[in-house]
Amino acid sequence: MTKDSRPLAVFDLDGTLADTAHRQRFLERTPRDWDAFFAAAPDDPPLAEGVALALKSAEEYEVVYLTGRPERCRRDTVDWLAAQGLPEGTIWMRRNDDRRPARRTKLDILRRLARDRAIHVLVDDDELVCEDAERAGFTVVRARWAATSAALKEAQEGEGRT
């Protein structure tokens, strides 16, 4: 099987591979400080369970990344993934001006990917993303190995920022 024909293992970043706990404080203020939140992303510690699952998945599947991070964070994201020794893979990010809820943006991309490739699994920490993906017929692993704040969950759903 060539790399291009292997099924995809789709991994979220924040709360799945990257521990965002140290930067969630930027979302707990009013107004939320999105610039500081994303500027601190390069300092995220890796989440061991998520990283191990991505590395194991890469043995059989093509790993790709699906994040609610805006496109302006691409360079930092590429560098962070490489620094963690994670598999190279396409990174799907939201447009800088896209404020739709994560469950909508991610499901749109999953459906697009599924037109050309089999999707083995989606690994994500956002319960609403997971629920919608399962309803759409995708296999989901819920990344429950990191603590997320209420502010982050509200931001994902209400402000479409991550």
Give a summary of the structure in a few sentences.
The chain is α/β, with parallel strands linked by helices.
Q: Can you walk me through this structure?
A:
The protein has 162 residues and is α/β, with parallel strands linked by helices. The protein has one domain (3-159): 3-Layer(aba) Sandwich (Rossmann fold). The protein has 6 helices and 5 strands; from the N terminus they run βααβαβαβαβα. A 5-stranded parallel β-sheet has the order 3-2-1-4-5, with helices on both faces. Helix 3 (74-83) links the parallel strand 2 and strand 3. Helix 4 runs parallel beside helix 5 (127-135). It starts with 7 loop residues before the first strand and ends with a helix.
Oligomer state of the chains in this structure? single chain
Q: Which band does the percent of strand residues land in?
A: 15-25%
Task: Describe the global form.
Answer: globular
Instruction: Output mean pLDDT.
Output: 89
Q: Regarding CATH, which class?
A: Alpha Beta
How many separate structural domains?
Answer: 1
Structural class: alpha/beta
Number of strands: 5
Number of helices: 6
CATH architecture assignment name = 3-Layer(aba) Sandwich
CA radius of gyration = 15 Å
**Helical amount:** 25-40%
Largest sheet: 5 strands, parallel
